[in-house]
Amino acid sequence: MASLQAARPEVAHREDALKNEYPLETGDSSNDNLYESDGIHDGLESPTKEEKITLRRVSDKIPWNAYLIALVEMAERFSYYGSVIVFTNFIQHPLPPGSRTGAGGANGQSGALGRDQQTSTGLNTFYQFWAYTTPLLGGYVADTYLGRFNTLYVGIAIAMVGHIILIISAIPGVIEKSSAIGVFVLGMIITGLGTGFFKANISPLIAEQYRRTKLFVITEPSGERVIVDPAQTVARVYMYFYLFTNIGSLVGQIGMTYAEKYVGFWLSFTLPTFVFMACPAILFFSRHKYIRSPPTGSVLATALRLWIFASRGRWSLNPVRTYNNLTSDDFWENAKPSHQREVQNWMTFDDAWVDEVRRGLKACSVFTWYPVFWLCYGQINHNLTSQAATLSTHGLPNDVLSNLNPFTLIIAIPICDWFVYPALRRWGINFTALKKMTGGFLTGAAAMVWAAVVQYYIYETSPCGYAANSKACYNTPSPLNVWIQTGSYVLIALSEILGSITGLEYAYMKAPKNMRSLVMSIFLFTSALGAALSQAFLPLVVDPFLIWNYGSAAIIATVTGIGFWLFFRKLDAQEDELNSLATGTMCKDFIPQGQLEKA
């Protein structure tokens, strides 16, 4: 049988490029532990079992072309958050007297549509739900038809149309009319669709610029032998990806809140649109610099068929027995092609690909807990902005405080990368992905506790008491300084480092190679479920129940975080084993080994 490389000359071309991108960092060619030639790990020394336990682990260098993709993400997030940051005021507050742009000026409250906080929160959570549901479609299209790179172009084109419609909803002559809300919602829907196509593919595209997948040993200049861990490298890639994300978010949010306050909403929707135009330009001029994976056909259908095949004979009227059968150790082993007397024609994959699917489903089971994480995170996009409007802002736009979140991330991410995580490794503390995720739930809960306490004191000090959010109180806020919200934003930022960044890493590392966009989109979809969960809290997003809104989220996140760790602590012990699985083969012309021998 002809090799896959012979059938795919572009693979060999990419491998030559990889040799130049990753020069050998170990020179002991006499070592028996050297990896066999594969174009990526040539000459690298694999660690022994003892070394895996005793040697310190470090990250590899991040490929320079990954930073080009991070620039694209930065521009897109500028446009996304630069627009979203003003949604709450645009929806909730009315046009200031005599204004045709919605600008409130130095001492006024900016607004446009004049709906209440429930409507504002409802539309914001709808947008979050929609923007993070559409990645499922974007991931499927990329893996099956267009590939990640081409699907990014499609997403950018769609989102550009949506941004233009948002501008139209805010221009004088439209913003004053009741029909403005219809134009605005249409813009949200189209922009959210483009965002979904973009988000499902930009995250895996940046990580696949780093190609090594196996542990290897190097000797540092100090003489210390250490293990270079691809999992830690991917984690580092996503930390800096998230750093660029929040630089774009911070600049976009600060600029657009002031544009809204002093000029009008039309400007706060127009400037992000111009910045968004940088995305296709950077992608086009750098297109030959990227490592790109082509589409591989409908592997989702094959994966589902594999699961159905593996589950045959394992169903029972007893739900406990069914659960035990479907989670038993031999569930996937018995479905491997090498275990079949007659290999099915649809089994166009090898045993290693079955292991990859098993690992991908484990990752998806981890993500089922994430909607509660996003329930806490989502508060910063709407309810905490509304809370700021009931505090004394001393001339600041009420929605500028949310910039404390990306500002904290920009500071904390390098601190974690340069100091915190290396220190933990030196001290022998294995801060695994699942441990970080658990910490993400608990710090998110702490942020909600802070918000609940602030809300209590707002009610106690507001001239309107437990009606602090009423229209009558727009110009008579609580005397408490708006900066007391700082704790909520800082804690949410820390929860993102532990939960959101790690989730991106986990989705990429655990997904089958030809399903990475799809598994990434499933992770992003949990944010949509978090938004849907937020809709259930809408009855609490009115006076005097806002304390319960934040308090309930805190309780649920705490219980979920504890349950998450108890449920997945055994999976945590398998982290190295799961990350080191061999890459499987899945293509329409593949002939399984057992079938090849018969031929």
UniProtKB/TrEMBL annotation:
Residues 10-19 have a biased composition (Basic and acidic residues). The keyword Signal does not apply. It comes from Marasmius oreades (fairy-ring Marasmius). It is a multi-pass membrane protein. GO terms for molecular function: dipeptide transmembrane transporter activity. Coiled coil: none annotated. Belongs to the major facilitator superfamily. Proton-dependent oligopeptide transporter (POT/PTR) (TC 2.A.17) family. Keywords: Membrane, Transmembrane, Transmembrane helix, Transport. One of its GO terms (cellular component) is plasma membrane. Pfam families: PTR2. Residues 1-46 are annotated as: Disordered. This is Uncharacterized protein. SUPFAM superfamilies: MFS general substrate transporter. The chain crosses the membrane at residues 152-175, 181-202, 240-259, 265-285, 441-459, 487-506, 518-541, 547-568. It comes from the Eukaryota. It is found in: Membrane.
